[in-house]
Amino acid sequence: MDSIASTRAAALAAAMSNPVRRHGSAKRNKASFRQALVNFNRLPKYLRDNEYIVGYYRPGHWSLRQIIGSLFRLHNETFNIWSHLLGFAFFVVLTVITVVCSERLAAEADAQQVTRWPLYVFFGGAMTCLLASSVCHLFGCCSQHVASIIWRFDYVGIAVLIVTSYFPPVYYGFLCLPFWQKFYLWSASLFGAATVVVSLMEVFQTIHFRPVRAVIFSGLGLFGVVPVVHQWAVHNHIPLFQEALIYDLLMGATYLIGAAVYATRIPERWKPGTFDLAFHSHNLFHLCVVIAAYIHYEATIVFIRWRDADQCPMA
């Protein structure tokens, strides 16, 4: 009996000490992770992108398990990963809510509603961009061969978002002008396809092409000025169009600010090392992408309200 009692007492003592041990182990793991991070000058050349971000880099030799584990650790890509991962989740929820509300409104509406597929194309583009970005920033510290492939899809995702953003305003804005509707949609799609092709080229990933990347994507976005001016000439007297236009101009300004910050590497170039973990240029660019995408959603809702109330005779 004494032996059994002693065994139980020892087991109870071990169980009571486990939380402390686990807590101590977690602290050691956290410290070990911090020690495994390296500075910019210790990175392999293929991972060097921004010399103004001095520390907290994951080295290029980690295993897949270590990289996945870094999703829940603090390093200089944590903000980039989670800003777009949470943005992806937000747009998933927004899509579900929109689908449910659209079906309910369609059942209650007296008149036929305008089609919603351009909005869902945009949702698909936004979610593709945000998820691809998160995955790329998580796994971008792999071997040189894998990293060179992964990072291309980050730029592909951005191009997809920009192109799919054209669909709602062009489709609804030129609903009564089918020739121009098709012309602008095809033009944007071809421009976007060309951008995707360029993005998949290996040379496009090099540090020397940073300004070129910003110019190409800004050009893809600025192409939207042409259909906007055209729509203004046709619909400037319509209040709902004016409201949607204000939203889209704000969206465009947000994208351009993000691109300018990304290209100039502000604010980290002013004080290297200060913004390693948060609010460096790539972080701010990510925030601009999410904010601009949501602003465009609001613009699209206004376009839909307009066309639900004022469809074309043959539409």
UniProtKB/TrEMBL annotation:
One of its GO terms (molecular function) is signaling receptor activity. It holds the Pfam family HlyIII. One of its GO terms (biological process) is response to sucrose. The chain crosses the membrane at residues 81-100, 120-141, 153-171, 183-203, 215-233, 245-263, 284-306. It is a multi-pass membrane protein. It is found in: Membrane. Its main location: membrane. Zn(2+) binds at residues 137, 282, 286. The keyword Transcription regulation does not apply. GO terms for cellular component: membrane. It comes from the Eukaryota. The keyword Iron-sulfur does not apply. Keywords: Membrane, Metal-binding, Receptor, Transmembrane, Transmembrane helix, Zinc. InterPro entries: AdipoR/HlyIII-related. Belongs to the ADIPOR family. This is Adiponectin receptor. The lineage of its organism: Eukaryota, Viridiplantae, Chlorophyta, core chlorophytes, Chlorodendrophyceae.
